[in-house]
Design a protein that fits this description.
Zinc Finger, Delta Prime, domain 3; two-stranded parallel sheet; 390 residues; alpha/beta; 8% strand; Helicase, Ruva Protein, domain 3
Length: 390
């Protein structure tokens, strides 16, 4: 009989057993409230592999007494969703909730994602999607508006160590393993509990006494100098952006090379360059945004390793460009004023007047349809007439 992998055997069954994600599991946080009130809501769980997305979805379904149906967007299609919806209707008639968990939901195309909309809207199914990609780019807007997005963080090293120690205790392993080896397994995991437990299981099966050398043989991998899911990921991308901002081409290309060499998602790098083009170059080089956006589209269509040429080309151009944060700073001031004066009435002379009544009320009075026309009383509401945003 085939044995269930350690990672699956160690999967928590209640929220109290979950290690990590404390920002979502506090007494007043959303997941605790869902379980407490037994009222599931549709969610998109965004986080790196091994951070607990599937586990949390299963726990929610169990705690709210819903049927849990799990599919992967890699192997499932629209017809599978239709069959599940029909099954959910039967559950509805029996007053049983249905939670549909879609792993890697970003792999579904627009038409496939559209198929969820009416059933999520009606409450027939509660959708929980899991993704390692930014939902803003990979999940359609109508679906995002009907779900709550929860960001899961990579597990911190102490959290991975706690999971490993619990596994050793529960498994009552006959092999001995010292603290250094557990620490090394945690370091290798990059915040991925599944990877850590897999390496632990393999190591325990290889020797009666597990050492760091045994772990190295089991994992067949050295300590990463760059971890796509950990602090180094954020540190290097931060250094990359700051080097472009400081117009230091050498540093820009060095940090870019480190990310590419480590296997970073090229679309992630390209997206950051698109943002940078508006945030930091802005009005000093209006063509930078188009260049960066073209780079993102090219990377998306061409793939690696050829996309490296595009990334290095555009990163060099952005680093060498003149910089201006005028529009970025103006955006901040405009946003603050919009929040402070969210109810300020639009001046009558700027209002649209499609009906006679509106014209009688002096909507649009005095406004002339000509370029550079400047109304005598200006464009801003009275409360803001002395404000300088740009």
């Amino acid at each position: 009989m085939q044995r269930v992998p350690l990672a699956e055997r160690m999967r928590p069954e209640t929220l109290d057993e979950v290690i990590g994600q404390t920002h979502l599991l506090g007494d007043k946080e959303i997941l605790k409230q869902i379980v407490k009130n037994r009222e599931p809501v549709s969610l998109i769980l965004w986080g790196p592999p091994g951070s607990g997305k599937t586990t949390l979805a299963r726990i929610i379904a169990k705690e709210v007494n819903a049927e849990f149906i799990e599919i992967s967007a890699v192997t499932s299609g629209k017809k599978d969703v239709e069959r599940i919806v029909e099954h959910a209707r039967q559950n509805w008639n029996l007053q049983l909730r249905t939670i549909l968990f879609v792993d890697e939901i970003h792999r579904f195309n627009k038409a496939q994602q559209d198929a969820f909309l009416p059933h999520v809207e009606s409450g027939l199914i509660t959708l929980i999607g899991a993704t390692t990609e930014n939902p803003s780019f990979e999940v359609i807007t109508p679906l995002l508006s009907r779900t709550r997005i929860l960001v899961l963080e990579p597990l911190a090293k102490p959290e991975v160590i706690a999971i490993l120690k619990r596994a050793v205790k529960i498994e009552k392993a006959t092999a001995k393993i010292d603290a250094k080896s557990i620490d090394y397994i945690a370091e290798l995991s990059g915040g991925d509990a599944r990877v850590a437990l897999g390496n632990l299981e393999l190591s325990l099966g290889m020797a009666k006494k597990v050492t760091v050398e045994v772990v190295k043989m089991a994992a067949q991998k050295r300590l990463p100098g760059y971890d796509k899911k950990g602090d180094m990921h954020y540190n290097v991308i931060s250094a990359f952006i700051k080097s472009m901002r400081g117009s230091n081409v050498d540093a820009t290309l060095y940090y870019l090379a480190r990310m590419i060499d480590a296997g970073e998602d090229p679309k992630f790098i390209a997206r950051r360059m698109v943002i940078f083009a508006s945030e930091d170059i802005g009005l000093a080089g209006n063509g930078a945004l188009g260049l960066a956006l073209n780079a993102f589209q090219a990377v998306e269509r061409i793939g690696m390793p050829e996309s490296s040429y595009i990334l290095f080309h555009v990163a060099t151009a952005l680093a060498k460009s003149e910089k201006s944060r005028q529009s970025t700073e103006a955006m901040g001031r405009a946003t603050a004023l919009a929040k402070q004066y969210s109810e300020a009435p639009v001046p009558l002379w700027l209002r649209n007047a499609p009906t006679k009544l509106m014209k009688d009320l002096e909507y649009g009075k005095g406004y002339k349809w000509q370029a550079d026309f400047k109304p005598e009383k200006g464009f801003l509401p009275d409360e803001l007439k002395d404000e300088k945003i740009f």
